[in-house]
Amino acid sequence: MKKIAIVTGASSGIGKQFFLSLNDRKDGLDEIWVIARNESKLEELRSLTDVPLRVFPLDLSAQDATSTMQKVFEEEKPAIQYLICASGFGRFNAIADDESAILENMVDLNCRSIVGITRAAFPYMAKGGTMILIASMAALQPIPYIATYGATKAFVLSYGRALNKELRSAKGARCLCVCPFWTQTAFFDRAYAEKTIVKKYVVMYKPEQIVKRAWKDLKKKNRDVSIHGATARGQALLVKILPHRMVMRVWMNQQKLK
C-alpha cells in the first residue's frame, strides 16, 4: 500500500509552498500526487522533490474531476498521509458587476470540489493522517464586494472543523483549517476585476509563513484552525466580539467604499 500525499492547487501560491515543505518532513512518502489545471507547471515540480511525483492536470471545478480521483483511489487504494486542499480563487467586485458564471464557478471550486475530494479520500486516510483545507480570514466575517469568496471560505471553515471530529472518530486522522490573511500569491491576478475595490491591505504575509505556522499548529493535537500573525489573530478576536454590522462598516470605510 503506497503512502502518499496529495496537494491540490500545487502549481502556485500556498499549494506549491505546501508541496515544497513536504520535502522537509521525512515522512517516508512513496509518492506525492499533485493536482491543478496547468500541467506544465505541475511537471516543473518534479525537479523540486526527491519523492516520485504523479501529476493530475484537472480542473477541480469541473463536475467529473473529483469522480476521476475517486476512481483512482478505488483502483490503487493508497494510504493517504496528507490531503492538502489549496485550490481556489476569489474576486474583488460588486455582485451586480460580476458575471454569474464566474461566481458559480467559484462556489464549485472553493466548496463543491472540497466536499468531493475529501469524501473520496476519506476511506483511504491513514491512521494519524491529516487533511489540510485552505480557508481564509475572510471566512470569519461577511465582506461586501468580496461577498461570494468570503461565503465560500466560511463554508470551508465550518465543514473542515466538523470533518475534523468525524476523521478523529472514524480514522484516527484529523483536519486542520488554515486561515491566511492577505498573502503574496497569484491570487490577486485573478481577484482583480475592472474596478479597484481593495485599496488598503492591513498586512501582507508570505506563503512560507502561512505554511510554517500550519505545520507548527499540527503539533497541537486539539488545534483545528491555524492563523498566522499577530495582526491576523487580533482581527480574528475582534470580529468575534464586535457586531458584524460594525465590522462591515469598518471594512467599507477602510476601502473607501460607499
Mean pLDDT: 95
In quaternary terms, these chains amount to single chain
Overall shape: it is globular
What percent of the residues sit in helical stretches (DSSP H or I)?
A: 40-55%
Kindly state the number of beta strands.
7
Report the uncertain regions: none
Strand content: 15-25%
Helix-strand topology string: EHEHEHEHEHEHHEHH
Largest sheet: 7 strands, parallel
Written description of the protein model:
Strand 2, helix 2 (39-43) and strand 3 (53-57) form a beta-alpha-beta unit. This protein has 258 residues and is of the alpha/beta class. The protein is built from 9 helices and 7 strands; from the N terminus they run βαβαβαβαβαβααβαα. The model has no long low-confidence stretch (mean pLDDT 95). A 7-stranded parallel β-sheet has the order 3-2-1-4-5-6-7, with helices on both faces.
Quickly list its features.
single chain, 258 residues, alpha/beta, 44% helix
Note the topology.
Layout: E1 3-8, H1 13-22, E2 31-36, H2 39-43, E3 53-57, H3 65-76, E4 79-85, H4 100-121, E5 125-134, H5 147-171, E6 174-178, H6 187-191, H7 207-218, E7 225-226, H8 230-241, H9 244-254
Quick description:
The chain is α/β, with parallel strands linked by helices and 258 residues long. The chain has helices at residues 13-22, 39-43, 65-76, 100-121, 147-171, 187-191, 207-218, 230-241, 244-254, and strands spanning 3-8, 31-36, 53-57, 79-85, 125-134, 174-178, 225-226. Strand 5, helix 5 and strand 6 (174-178) form a beta-alpha-beta unit.
